[in-house]
Specification:
By secondary structure, the chain is mainly alpha-helical. It has seven helices and seven strands.
Length: 280
Amino acid sequence: MKKMKTVRILLGLALLQSLAFSGQLHAQETPNSEINAAIRKEGMENSKVMWTIHHFTDLYGPRLTGSPNYVSAAKWAAREMMSWGFDKAELEAWDFGHPGWVNERNIGLMLNPVQDTLTYEVLAWTPSTKGVVVSEPVSMVIPQVPSPANPRIMQNPTQEELTAYFESIRSTINSKIVLVGKPAFLDQTGTPPAKRLSDEEAKRLFDPNTPATPAGGPGGQGRGPITQRPDALSAAQINEQLDRFLVENNVLVRINDAGMNLGLVRAFNNRTFDITKVVP
């Protein structure tokens, strides 16, 4: 009986503690209108979001990992947070295994048939040119083969086909500026691109009764995936061999088509982070 009484007391204490804890949680979860109003007022009247973005993007610009731009931006952020009342804000060292990189200056000009300034961006972790370089441009397009199932879908070459193509253009690209890839077609009809799907289009896409679109889009044949060519190289394999081929043949500069309208350019980075494996 004494043992049972002890158990009941312990259960009672546990229950009381549980009720007290749940009551505390309930009290904490109750909305506080004054606090919410203060948060909204701070966000609507004293927000520094755009000011902060201005400093990061306009003042410090691209902030690649390990770049002087990033370090300067991070130091500014720490100082700014201290000015807001933070007790501590400091930088911590981190080595991501690659050297830093920054683009200090780049100028590109078209000399013939007319003179013009080129709009372009430099890919990160690519080397500089050896001073000013001048050359006639040479176009280079990796060969592809139409898919038998859908001629609108192009498939990658085999190793034999890629090697043969490299040998056929080797003498023409040596010490030249090379335009790599088929230029994109930009529709200049003036019709602005849609920023969102219409309600009707969205409903059609998610309607289970809508017939499936054939592989390869409109005009495709069959609904299953396109069968890949036997022994076709992957995009990664082609890119690796292409980079090596350009370096071996002393290409002065590689130019990729941005494929965007209104002079917009997106420039990412050399996938290897090694400036010795690619050309400028």
